[in-house]
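Aim 2, interim progress. The first record below pairs a target sequence with its C-alpha cells.
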Amino acid sequence: MPFCSLKVVMWPVLVALVLCGGCATIEFSKSPELPVLAVEPPAVEQPSPPPLPPEVPVPAPAPEPAAPAPALSLSIQDAIELAIEKNLGLAVDEIDPASARTLIAEQRALFDPTVDASLTRSKDEADRDFITAVPLEIPSGAGTPAGTITIDERADAGSHTYTTSGDLGVSEFLPTGTTINATVTPARSTVDTFTSRIGAEGSDTTLESTGSELSVTQHVLQGFGLKVNLAGLRQAKLAALSSDYEFRAAVENLVAQVENTYWDYSLAQQQIRILEDSRTLAQNQAKEVEERIRVGVLAETERAAADAEVALRQNLLIDGRSSLEQLRLALLRLLNPDEQALEHQDLALTTQPVMPEINLDAVRQSIAFAGQMRPELNQARLLIQRDDLSLVTTRNGLLPQLDV
C-alpha cells in the first residue's frame, strides 16, 4: 500500500484512540460510588423473636439511676481531716496498736499473785444391830415371890462422822526468779455415836485443826535475775511501741496519698479545660478549612488533615475525662465520706494551687531530725532491742536448773 494511503487510513484510528483515552481519563477521575442495593425482607408469619407467652411475667423496667448528690466542697485541710477520720484502711491499721498493748497485760499478769481455794465436805455412817440380855426384877406380889428374869432386847448402835476441810493458798512469782507459796488448810470433824438400848446415851465429839505452810523457792541458775524474767514484758512493750510507729507511718502515707490525689485531681480539671479549648480551636479551624475549600482557595485534600486534628483533640479530651473520673474515685475512696459517695458524689476543690513558702533548715539538721522521727528507722531500732532480749532469754535457757 502506498505511504500516503496508509497515512489517510491511520488518522481516523488515532483520533478514535485519543477520544477513548480522554473518556477513560474523565471516567476514572470521578469518585467511585457504591451501588444502592434494595433487599426486601422475607415474608414471615410472626416477628422474630416471638412474643412471650401470657403466663411468663414481663420483667419490670430497671429503676432510673439516682440523681447525683450535691458537690462536696473540699479544701486540702478538710480532705486530710476527713481521710484520717473515715478512711477504712486506717481504721483497720488502728487495731494493731490496741492488739499489741494486750500482750503487755499478758506478760505483766505472770507476776500477779494467784489465789487457790477449795472446800470439801463428807459424811460417814456406821450402823449395826445386836441383841442383848437384859435382867428384869419382878417384885413380890400376892402369892407371887420376888425374883429376877432375863429377857432379850434388840438394840441399834452406830456412829456418824461429819468432816469439813478446805485449803486456801496464795502464790506469786517475782521478777527475781523467786516463787512464794502460802497455804492454810483448816479442817473440822464431828463424830456422833448412839445406841437405842434402854438407858444408853449417845456422845458428840468435835475436832478442829488448822494447818499452814509457807515455802520460798529461788532459781539460782536458769531463771535467775530481772533481765531474763522481765525479757518477755520488755519485748511486749517494744512490740507495742513498734506498732505505734507503724500506725504513724500509715497515717503519714495516707496524708501523702490524699495530698497527691487532691492536687492531681485539681491538675486534671485544669487539663480538661485546656483540652476543651483545644478541641474548640480544632473545630473552628476545620470550619475555616471547609469554608476555604468551598470557595476554592484550598484543595479537597486539606479537609482530611483538619478532620484528623479534630478527632485527635476529641480523643485526648475523652482520655482526660477518663483520668479525671479515676482520680475522683481514688480521692473519694481515700476520704470515704459516705457509703454512696463512689456512685454519685462530685468534688469541688476550694484550695488554689500556690507555691508555699518553705524555709529550709540546714542539711545536717534535717538529716538528724529525720533520723529521730522517721518511723521505719525507729522500728529498726526497736527490732534490734527485741533481738537482744531474745538473745538473753536463749542464753539463760542453756543454763542448768538449780533451785534453793
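The second target in this work package is listed in the same format:
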Amino acid sequence: MVALVENVGERRWLPHMTFQEFYEMYLFYGSGEGKEKARRTTFFRCFNKQGWVNLLKFRKVAQHARCDTCARLTKAARVACTASDRKAAEEGIRAHRLRNFADRAVDFRLSQLSEGSTTAEAKVKESRVLHIRIDGMDQAKFRCPRNMENSKWWEKLWRPTLHCVGVIVEGVLEAYYITDQDVKKDSNLELTVLGVALDKTFELLQAKGIEMPEHLSLTYDNTAREGKNQHMAKWMAWLVSTGSFWSVQDGNGQVGHTHNKLDQRFSVVANVLARQTLLQTPEDFLTVIQQHIHPAGGRELEVKKLEAAWDWQDFFAPAEIVFSGIAASHTTPYVCHSKRFVRRQDVPMLSLGLPDDYKMVVPAIFGKDVEQPDDVIMIMKEFWSSESLAHPPVLAWNSTVTCKLIVAPSRVCCRNALSKEQIWQYRKTASAVREAPWHLLAASGYLTKWLDQNVSGTVHLPLPLGFLAPSAQKQRWTKAALAISTGVAESDEWL
C-alpha cells in the first residue's frame, strides 16, 4: 500500500464488512498478476499508520444494506466444514467482486469520456459521450423547518420532509433539485429532473461553443420506483427516435454495489446541513447548499427548487408499448443491468459478437411495419461490464410510434393529497413555531402556504424542458445527418 501524504483527499465510505473480509478483498483484487501480496499484519499496519484509516471508513449496518451475494458467500466461507467448501465459497466471492470491480471500471471510463467530450478540444472528436448519474439523497437531513436549539421539543412536532435529487453530468454540471414533501417521487420526477439537467448542460456547453455530445449514458440506483422501469426505457428510446442523441444507454451495479461519487457528494451536503442550526424554508436549504458546496472537476453548480413534474407516463401512453422484465420481481428475479438503444443502421457497426445469421426479435406490435434504418433497437447485457449480449437485439421503437405522440409532455403531475391527520399536525407545527421565544415567522408562513395549496389542489408548473423540446438544434442527428456520417461511424470508438 502506498503511503498518503498529509491525508490528502476526500473521505470515502466502504460497505459494511469485517476487517478480515476487507483483507480478503485486497487479496482477491488484482490476483493473478504475479505481484506479491502483503500479509495480514503488514496490511493492517499500513492501513492504520499511513493515513488510509482516516480516508476509508466502514459504513454501519444501518447505513448500507449488504449485497445478498456478498453476505451469503462470506457466511458460507466462515462456516465451511471442509477446505473444498471454503475454497468454493472464496472463489465465488472472488468472481463476484471482480465483476463489481469491472462494472466500476466501466463507470470510471465513461466518466473520463464524458469529461473529455465536454472540452473545447472535443469539437473535433468523432466519439463523444455525456455520462450522467442521478440519485435521491437520504431525507433525514431535510426536515423543514430545522432548529437545533431545542431538539427534544422540536422532535415532537410533525415536520414535512423535503426531497433532494442529485445529478452529476461528468465534466459539466453538479446539480441539486429540491421538492416539497407532497411532490410524487417516481419515474415522472426522475425524467423531469433529467430533462432539466440536460437543458442546463446544453446551456453551459453552448456558452462555451461546444455542441452536445452525440451519445448519452445514464446510471442510477438499482430500483424500479425511479429509473429501472419501462417509463425510463421508453424515454431513452424516444430520445434516439427524435434525434436528441445518436444512442442512449444505461447501466448500474448489482444491488448493494450501486454507490458512486454522487453518494460521496451527498455526504458532503449532509455535513454542511448538519452544521446549520436554523433552516426555516426550502429556500434556506437551497442557499446553504449554493454557498457551501464546491463541485470538483471544474463542474458548474446548480441548485433549484422544483414545484412539479411533467407526466411522462401519460405522454407515452399513446405509444401502446409495454416493456417487461426491466426490473427484478418475483417472476423475473434476474434481469439485465445494462441496455442500450441505437438505430437499426448502426447495429452492424457495433461489436456485439453476433453470428451473421442472427434474428432480431420483433414484437407483435411492429409485425406489419416495414423495416426502416432509423428504427430504434434495444440491446441488453446482463452486467454493465459484460462483453456479450444477454438476448438478441429487440426492435423497441420506430417512427410510427413517435408520430403517435405529441411533441413534448404537456400534462403536469398532481401532488399527493395530504391526509387529515397530516394537515392537522402540520398546522399545529406552523402555529407552534410562531410562538415565543422562537418566532420562526418564515417557517410558519411556508407551512401555512404549502398546506393551503395542498388542500385547494393548486397546480404548480414544472420547469420547461428546453433541450428536449423541438428545436433546430436537435436536427443534427436526423436521417440526413446520420446518412452523411456513416463513414465516420465506422471508425467511431464509441460504436
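The longest helix spans residues 83-117. This observation will shape the mutagenesis plan for the next reporting period.
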